[in-house]
Amino acid sequence: MPASPSNPAWFRYLTFWRRDPGAELDQELAFHFEARLAEYIAGGLDPDAARALATERLGNLARVRDDCSRIEAQYARRRSMTDSLSGVMGDLRHALRQLARQRAFAAAAIACLVLGIGVNTAIFSVVDAVLFRPLPFRDPSRLVMIGEALPVISDQNMGTISTPDFGDFAKLNGSLFVSSSVFEPTSLTLAGRGSAERLAGLDVSSSLFRVLGAAPALGRVFQDGDDAPGSPDAVVLSDALWRRRFGGDRTIVGRTVQLDGRPFTVLGVMPAGFTFPLPGLSLEPAAFFVPLRMTPDVMQARGNSFNAYMIARLAAGVSVEHATAAVNTIAGRLPSLYPTFYSPAFRVAAGALPLRAHLVSDVRGPLIVLLGAVAFVLLIACINVAGLLLARAAARSRELAVRRALGASRGRLTTQYLAEGAVLAVPGALGALALAQWCTGALSRLAPDGMLSGYRIGLDLRVLTFTVAVTMLVVVLFSLVPALSGSALGLANALRDEGRGTSAGRTKQRARRVLVASEIALALVLTTGAGLLARSFANVLNVDPGFTPTHLLSFRIAFPSYRYPNASGVLDAEQALVDSLARVPGARSATATVNLPTLGGWQIAFSPEGEALPKVPIAANFVVLHDYFQTMGIAVVKGRAFDARDDASAGNVAIIDERLAREFYGRKNPIGQRLKWGAPQSTDPWKTIVGVVRTVPTHGLDQKNPPELYFPARQLAVDSAFVDAALRELTFVVRADRDPLALTPDVQRLVRAIDPQLVVTHVQSVESLVSQSVASRRFDLLLIGAFAMLAVLLAAVGLSGLVAYSVVQRQREIGVRLAIGATQKGIVSLVLRDGLRTAGWGSAFGIAGAFALTRLMRSLLFGVGALDATTFLATPTILIAVAAFASWLPARRAARIDPMLAIREE
Amino acid sequence: MASESDTVELLQGTLDVLVLKAVSWGPAHGYGVARWLQDVTDDALRIEEGSLYPALHRLEKRGFVESSWGLSENNRKAKYYRITTRGRQQLRQEASSWSAFASAVAKVLTSTKRPAWA
């Protein structure tokens, strides 16, 4: 009775078709019936009776079949799940085997993915850190900056306020604002162990840390009352200063440090992650925080200087528009509340700006363009992989057709494509992460000063999520292309198609041609963008700076009030220093100024005499010592430069630049005309124009620069804390006859000899300053250019692969052509035409795409239109040339085909 | 309706244990199981033999028996069922609870203790 423990091999074939459990049951029942029948007959019954008895004994077979099929159905669903899982595993194994066989294909596809996903991850990590990740403060979306505007000058919100006005805006605390704070850049000399050091820091209202929700790492931050006039001097240190200057000493809290000759008690130390102010405000990161006190001196600056930054936290339910309306109402009342500071005609407006939007307003455009550019690179990389898969699908179309014929469903084949995609994507994504890690490091180093510092850029969970999402999207994209084109292809068609070598895979070849053409179109759009940026950059470099930046050394020295109590003493010391600097070996001349070209700086409103202007104009305010024009190499076009005669006792004089002369005096001779600071009603003394000089780029070569005014420092009325501070920290410039930085040691020695408490900071050649002013433009060009090159390379590889493949497919046809007398040259041109036709279509669509898209980068262009004809002609030419080369490589191989071999090979 | 399906459940469950016990002796086809049950009970149960097959299939789905096609004593193709390890565990459990049930019923039916109300 027992069966053999193991079934004979052939029995497995009986169980192979497990399609019909019903048939199996019938077989079982038939065996049962026959065995019973045989038993009864052997027992002596006649066949008819035996049959009736056996039937009765078996019972209701219909119910038995019913029960069995119900059991079958009940378990079928569970089994189908495990079945499809094992199907996927099988697909993955199959895909791995396929790839192991085709290493070159796998390497090419994975390289495309690494490049595409890698650069996307890197750029995304930057964009995410700057634009998307919440700012490192508590509930940052509720923070706004309050800025004032003076409509008589411009309706533009300055983003800053006049310090005393803070008290008025802060009246909204408890209603529209939860709290509000104000801060102002400052610098102080730190003395003590080691040499004296000049540090950039912030004067802050005691509420700042509370508004930001920032807690100290050590000690405490300011509390209410710490900024009251007469309160003891106290300081909160940044982590960077604490580590660098105090060696991370944890007992620092409660001790005193000497700042500008006064003892300050250290209240606390901020944590390492607290970088403030954030980039985007063009302020240096603060090394320390000291209380901003509303002293009578500070209150005098109302309406005069607008250098304070105000951050407020909105109360729940208060919108930015709501806050803007409220601060604007308060600003509107300022002139009538403070008539001594704001003349009644001087209307004041104000508005609230969301903090994030305000900080990133300069970098948002370039970053979005960069993100778009890398998306294009990714798309091209995907298309390349899709093209490779498609080519392979064409080579495998017989296999696929056979599988279809054997009953593999469309869905089943699609799953297989997805599995193959996944097998490529996983190593691609891992490689991409490594590449991105390297790229983010390189980006942080390459980025212009202040663009990315203060942001935490790197691979974190958010970036990883992005990479995984992009990879999955990519797999679906490039896996479905061959799957769809595969199913579009009729089954019989595929079998027939593959049967004849001459017309093989034509249908799939067409799909691939479309893909390669779109690659070329995408690459062309990117190249056009890069071309426009390159033209812009060249235009910027061609801008005449109006001065000679080479051989100029610049540095800053502050003359603190604890050493130089009165303002005229400061100017004497500064003039004496300039005179000594000019005698340093290697120096030709020296000067000092409040503003330096390309660095922006002090701006003032001014009024030319006798003109009623619709708006009070503003100008860059260059307050300089004499010898400024000679040292800087700024040509005097008309009149004279300042000299030693222009001191406090002489009549007030001014020098204007050519643009101001053109805009405000036209054909009139400006020499002898008069102008003054402020609005026409201001009580400032008239100043007589004595000269006109060449225009320099105040904010930078590519910036919209204001007209320029020059005044001798000696004639400036030091009537406010702001003017006093400005004159105490001048930028000194030395013209050298050699590498200017070589003069630095002598300069340092000279300054130390004059006063060891003076600190030389910001030592730089003026040439490098000018170069820094175009750094962000260079950065954008570098990245977009690199991406465009990558795109062209990928597209060229795609095209070359397409043409090479079609040469293999048409080998027999080419053989026939050669045999019946076609020349090698003819074959080359035949194949070249093939490649160039695809490139031509791609270029046509690319030009259309560029036409539509380059306008989005208009804000990044300089001196060139978004539809610049030169660029729009040059880039397709370059792309066609690259396409010709990419097609020529396989064309040359085609021409060398041996006709006899080609024809025989079938 | 509910009571009727309860009866079927009970019968099915009982049949399952009997079938498991039958195949616990060694691999057997449905007919073999039927013959063995007939022999050991002296045909007292008079099982409708067709219903053995749903029981066997259910046991197979639940992983208590495995099946494979083999040759019968007289060289006919037949499906053999073999008990699995899980099937043996199940059989032990079912057998002990069935014994407990049967002895409880027997105790009731053989009891001589008069109830309080009588």
How would you sum up this structure, described in words?
The complex is a heterodimer of chains A (906) and B (118). Chain A is of the alpha+beta class and 906 residues long. Chain A is 52% helix and 14% strand. Chain B contains 4 helices and 2 strands; from the N terminus they run H-H-H-E-E-H. Chain B has helices spanning 2-24, 30-40, 52-61, 85-110; strands spanning 65-71, 77-83. Chain B is elongated, with a radius of gyration of 17 Å. Residues 1-10 of chain B have low confidence and may be disordered.
> Helix coverage percent of residues of chain B?
55-70%
Give a short account of the largest sheet of chain A: 6 strands, mixed, barrel
Overall pLDDT score of chain A: 85
Uncertain stretches of 5 or more adjacent residues of chain B: 1-10
Computed CA radius of gyration of chain B, to the nearest angstrom: 17 Å
Give the overall silhouette of chain B: elongated
Catalogue the unreliable spans of chain A.
1-19, 487-491, 497-504
E-strand count of chain B:
2
- Strand proportion of chain B, as a percent range, falls in 5-15%
Q: What kind of assembly state do the chains in view correspond to?
A: heterodimer
Overall number of strands of chain A: 21
What does this entry show, briefly?
The complex is a heterodimer of chains A (906) and B (118). Chain A is α+β, with helices and mostly antiparallel strands.
Key structural traits:
heterodimer, A: 906 residues, alpha+beta, 6-stranded mixed beta barrel, 6-stranded mixed β-barrel, 28 helices, 52% helix, disordered N terminus, B: 118 residues, mainly alpha, two-stranded antiparallel sheet, 12% strand
